Amino acid sequence: MFKNKYYLCILIFLLFDILTKQLALIYLNEFESKSFIPFIDLYLTYNSGIAFGFLDLGHRLLSNLLTIVGICIVIYIFMLLNKESESSKKLALSMIIGGALGNIFDRIPDGYVTDFFHLKTNEFSFFIFNPADAFITIGAVILIYLELFKRDHVSKS
After folding, report:
1. Bridge partners of 86?
2. pLDDT, tens digit, for every residue of 7-26?
């Protein structure tokens, strides 16, 4: 079915993000905190900005601009994925693409992204995020690590 296993990975990341956001919308009430795991509560909120609430100004125009920029970035990262030969970098790029597409698809109807994982310790709140944000962040960290510490690392797919 899929010639490129990394396209399948993108689809899996995207579908997981969509599914979990739909479950959050069904089972969580906005602004109500529920214990989940240590350091993370479930807390439904909406974000018109970018990852972790940055630039969340509530303006549809800014949200539309972020959507267009996001689409351009995804196209560019798809090009990088198709040129990349290292499997670990391809997986990282797939995580970023899957996460970015998840947030883009979530943002298009109403200008907001659904966030529901609240990272906190004691009474200090770090940020509220969703699986797409996590995929993008983890993928970026993997890429940075590979570039900085594994320059001679070659693992063909």
Report:
1. 156
2. 999 999 999 999 999 999 99
Of the candidates 46, 20, 26, 62, the one whose C-alpha atom is nearest the C-alpha of residue 114 is 46
Q: What is the mean pLDDT of residues 123-131?
A: 87
Q: Which of 17, 110, 133, 152 is catalytic?
A: 133
- Rounded to whole angstroms, how far apart are CA atoms 138 and 115? 17
Catalytic residue among 17, 41, 56, 115: 115
For tokens 């883009």, the residue is 104
pTM of the model: 0.86
pLDDT tens digits along 94-125: 999 999 999 999 989 988 899 999 998 877 88
Q: Is 17 a catalytic residue?
A: no
30 φ, ψ to 5°? -55, 135
Bridge partners (DSSP) of residue 133 are: none
Phi and psi angles of residue 48, each rounded to the nearest 5 degrees, phi first: -95, -5
The per-residue pLDDT for 1 is 44
Measured distance CA(52)–CA(103) in Å, rounded: 12
Residue 133 among the catalytic residues: yes
